[in-house]
Amino acid sequence: MIEIRNLRKNFGEKKVLKNVNLTIPEGKVTCILGGSGCGKSTLIKCMIRLIDPNGGQILVDGKDITKIRSEVKMAAIRRHFGYLFQEGALFDSMTVGENVAFGLKYLTDVPPSQYARIIREKLALVGLREDVAALNPSELSGGMKKRVSLARVLAVSPKVILYDEPTTGLDPIMSDIISDLVLDLKAKLGVTSVVITHDMHSAFKIADYIAFLYEGEILLHGTPDEFRKTENPYVKQFVTGSSHGPIQMKLMRE
Amino acid sequence: MFNLFSQVGGATRMVSSAVFWTLHARFETRQAVAQSVTIGVESFGVTALTSLFTGMVLALQAGNTIGNIFGDPIFVGTIVAFSLIRELGPVLTGVVISGRAGAAVTAQIGTMAVTEQIDALYTLGTNPIRYLVIPRMFGFILTMPILTLFSNVFGVLGGYLVAVYALGVPGEVYFTDITTFMGVSDFMHGFIKSFIFAFMIATVCCYKGISTRGGAEGVGKSTTGAVVTTIVLILVLDYFLTAILTAFGI
Question: In Å, how far are A107, A150, B29 from B118, measured between CA atoms?
Answer without folding.
Answer: 16, 17, 20
